[in-house]
Write a structure and sequence with these properties.
It is a multi-pass membrane protein. InterPro entries: SLC26A/SulP_dom, SLC26A/SulP_fam. The structure is a single chain. The protein is an alpha/beta fold. It has 2 domains: 368 residues, no CATH class; 79 residues, Transcription Regulator spoIIAA (2-Layer Sandwich), CATH 3.30.750. A hairpin with a 2-residue loop joins strand 3 and strand 4. Helix 2 crosses helix 16, helix 5 crosses helix 13 and helix 8 crosses helix 18. The longest helix has 28 residues. The termini are far apart. The N terminus and C terminus are likely disordered.
C-alpha cells in the first residue's frame, strides 16, 4: 500500500469531516464580530466602517497567511487606547492609517527577528487566568445587554474605565431601563443555547448541523419583528440593534474606504505611533494564539514568528484600505472553537461573510438585537471561566493557582495587559521561590561525632541560587565535613562560584573540611565509611573550583 495515498485519503476524510464545524464556527464568530468591530472603531475615534474593514482583513488576509488553526483576527479592545492616542496625536485619520501600515512592517521585521519566542515564556497558569478573566468580564458585561441596556461595547475588556463610568454604574442604569422585549429575546436565546448542549439534542444529528447561534439570531430578529407588528411602541431600535453603515450605491460603498496620507511619512510622530501599535498588537497576538492553542481540542501549536508576519501583512493591508489596527482576538476565536471550528477555514469563512454582509446585507444585519448576541457571548464567557478550571489549577498547587487567581483578579480590576503583567510578576515570584528552595539537594550524615554534609548542585546554577547558597554555607556547623558535588552542573554562575570560594577561604578557621567531587554520580558509593577512605577515594578529584 502506498503510504502517500493513504495519508492523502485520511487527510481528505478529516478535511471533509471538519467542514461543517468550520462553517458553524465561522458563521457564529461573524455574527458576534459585526457589532464588536463597529463598537471598537467607535471607541477608537475612527469611522465605524474602519472596524468592519479590519475585521474582514483579519479573516481573509491574516487567515490566509497565518498558520494558526483556530485563531481569528480583527480589531481588539486592547488596541483602543493606542489607536485613540495615535489619532489624537497625528490629528487625522489618514495619517493614522499610514502609521497602521508601518506598524505592520515592524511586525514583519519582528517575525524575521524571531521575536515570537517571547510567547514561550508565558506560564500556562497566566494564560488560563487570562482566559478565565475574559470569560468573567464577558459574563458580567452581557447582563445589561440581556435586560435592554446597550450603551457599552461588549468587547471592551475593562470593568472600571478611566473616566469613572464603570460596570456598577452600568448595572444601576440597566435596572432603571429594563426592556421587556430584550429580556424575552435573551431568555429564549439562552434557553436555545443551553438546550443545544444537552445530550438529548446532541443525539439529533440534523440539529447539530445547524449553529445554535444562527437559530438565536434568527429567532431574535423574528421576535422583534413580531413585536413591531403587534405593539410597535415596544419594538427594539437604535442602539438596541446592530448598526452597520449602509451605502446607497456602489460608489457610496467604495467611499467608505480611506487611503493613507503618504505625505506624512516625514512626520516623526507617525513612526512613534507605528511602534506603539506594533508592540501592543504583537503582544496581544502572541497571547491570543497561545490561548487559542490551549483551547484547541487537537492541541496544535502555532508558529509564533509566522503569526507575527501574518499579523504584519494584515495591518499593512488594513491601513492601506482604511481599517483600524488588528490582532488575534481570543473572544472571537473562542466563540468559533465552541461552535465547532477545527481548521483555519473558519477564519476565512468569517472574513468572507463580513465582506458579503458589508456589501449586500447591511439592512438585514441591522435588525439583529443586541440581546441575542449578548446571550452568545455570555455562554462563551461561561465556558472560558467555568468552575472546573479553578478546581484544576487548585489541584495543581499554589504555585499554579495563585498566579492564575492573581491574573483573573487583576484583569477584572484593571485591563487585559495590566492583568497579564501582574500574573507574570506573581508567577515569577513562585519561580524564584522554588529556585531558592530547590537549587541544591542536601544530604546530612553523622560520622565520628562530626556532621558530614553533601551538597549536590543542579544542572544550571544561576545567580538566583546565590541567596540560598549563602544561607546554606553560613549555617554549616564547625568541625563538619562538606562535600560539594558539581558532577551534574553544566553551568555555575560566577556569583555562586564567588560565594563558594569565599566559604573555602574561611572554612579552615572553623575546622571545616571542604571536598569537591567530580566523579559521576552513578559510579560513586553512597557515603564513604570513614573520612580517611573518603580522602583516598577522592584524592585526585580534590581541586579548587575555578
Amino acid at each position: 500500500m502506498n503510504p502517500i495515498k493513504t495519508t492523502q485519503k485520511s487527510y481528505q476524510k478529516r478535511d471533509s469531516s471538519t467542514l461543517e464545524g468550520d462553517i458553524r464556527g465561522g458563521t457564529v464568530s461573524f455574527l458576534v464580530a459585526v457589532p464588536l468591530c463597529l463598537g471598537i472603531a467607535l471607541a477608537s475615534g475612527a469611522p465605524l466602517f474602519s472596524g468592519i474593514i479590519a475585521g474582514l482583513v483579519g479573516g481573509l488576509v491574516v487567515g490566509l497567511f497565518s498558520r494558526s488553526a483556530l485563531s481569528i483576527s480583527g480589531p481588539e479592545a486592547g488596541l483602543i487606547v493606542v489607536a485613540l492616542a495615535a489619532i489624537e496625536s497625528l490629528g487625522s485619520f489618514p495619517a493614522f492609517l499610514l502609521a497602521t501600515s508601518m506598524a505592520g512592517l515592524i511586525q514583519i521585521g519582528l517575525g524575521y527577528l524571531r521575536a515570537g519566542i517571547i510567547s514561550n515564556f508565558f506560564p500556562s497558569s497566566v494564560i488560563k487566568g487570562m482566559l478565565a478573566g475574559i470569560g468573567l468580564i464577558l459574563i458580567i458585561k452581557q447582563i445589561p445587554h440581556l435586560v435592554g441596556y446597550d450603551a457599552d461595547s461588549a468587547e471592551e475588556i475593562s470593568l472600571f474605565q478611566p473616566e469613572g463610568f464603570n460596570i456598577v454604574s452600568q448595572f444601576q442604569l440597566a435596572i432603571g431601563q429594563l426592556n421587556g422585549v430584550a429580556i424575552l429575546i435573551a431568555a429564549v436565546s439562552l434557553g436555545i443555547l443551553l438546550l443545544w448542549e444537552r445530550p438529548a439534542f446532541k443525539r439529533i444529528k440534523w440539529l447539530q448541523n445547524i449553529p445554535a447561534a444562527l437559530v438565536v439570531v434568527v429567532l431574535g430578529i423574528s421576535i422583534n419583528e413580531l413585536v413591531r407588528v403587534i405593539a410597535p411602541q415596544l419594538v427594539l431600535k437604535g442602539n438596541h440593534l446592530v448598526q452597520l453603515p449602509v451605502a446607497d450605491s456602489l460608489s457610496g460603498f467604495f467611499g467608505l474606504f480611506t487611503l493613507p496620507d503618504f505625505s506624512q511619512w516625514t512626520n516623526p510622530q507617525v513612526y512613534i505611533s507605528a511602534l506603539s501599535i506594533a508592540l501592543v498588537a504583537s503582544l496581544e497576538a502572541l497571547l491570543a494564539i497561545e490561548a487559542s492553542d490551549q483551547l484547541d481540542p487537537l492541541k496544535r501549536k502555532t508558529p509564533a514568528n509566522t503569526e507575527l508576519k501574518a499579523q504584519g501583512i494584515g495591518n499593512i493591508v488594513s491601513g492601506m484600505i482604511g481599517g483600524i489596527p488588528l490582532t488575534s482576538v481570543i473572544v472571537r476565536s473562542s466563540v468559533s472553537i465552541n461552535a465547532g471550528a477545527r481548521t483555519k477555514r473558519a477564519a476565512l469563512i468569517h472574513g468572507t461573510l463580513l465582506l458579503v454582509s458589508a456589501i449586500a446585507l447591511p439592512t438585514v444585519l441591522n435588525r439583529i438585537p443586541w440581546a441575542a448576541l449578548a446571550s452568545i457571548l455570555l455562554i462563551t464567557g461561561y465556558k472560558l471561566s467555568r468552575v472546573g478550571i479553578f478546581k484544576q489549577l487548585l489541584n495543581e498547587g499554589i504555585a499554579k493557582f495563585i498566579p492564575f487567581v492573581a491574573t483573573v483578579a487583576a484583569i477584572l480590576l484593571t485591563d487585559l495587559l495590566t492583568g497579564i503583567a501582574v500574573g507574570m510578576l506573581v508567577a515569577l515570584f513562585f519561580i524564584l521561590r522554588e529556585n531558592y528552595r530547590n537549587a541544591h539537594r542536601i544530604q546530612t550524615f553523622q560520622e565520628g561525632g562530626n556532621e558530614r554534609i553533601r551538597i549536590s548542585m543542579g544542572d544550571y546554577v544561576s545567580f538566583l541560587s546565590k541567596a540560598s547558597m549563602v544561607k546554606l554555607l553560613t549555617g554549616i556547623p564547625n568541625n563538619a565535613v562538606v562535600e560539594i558535588d558539581c558532577t551534574n552542573s553544566s553551568y555555575i554562575d560566577s556569583d555562586v562560584m564567588n560565594t563558594i570560594d569565599n566559604f573555602k577561604e574561611t572554612a579552615s578557621l572553623r575546622n571545616i573540611q571542604l571536598v569537591f567531587l567530580r566523579e559521576p554520580v552513578e559510579n560513586r558509593p553512597p557515603i564513604p565509611e570513614s573520612l580517611s577512605a573518603m580522602r583516598n577515594r577522592h584524592l585526585r578529584e580534590i581541586e579548587k573550583i575555578r
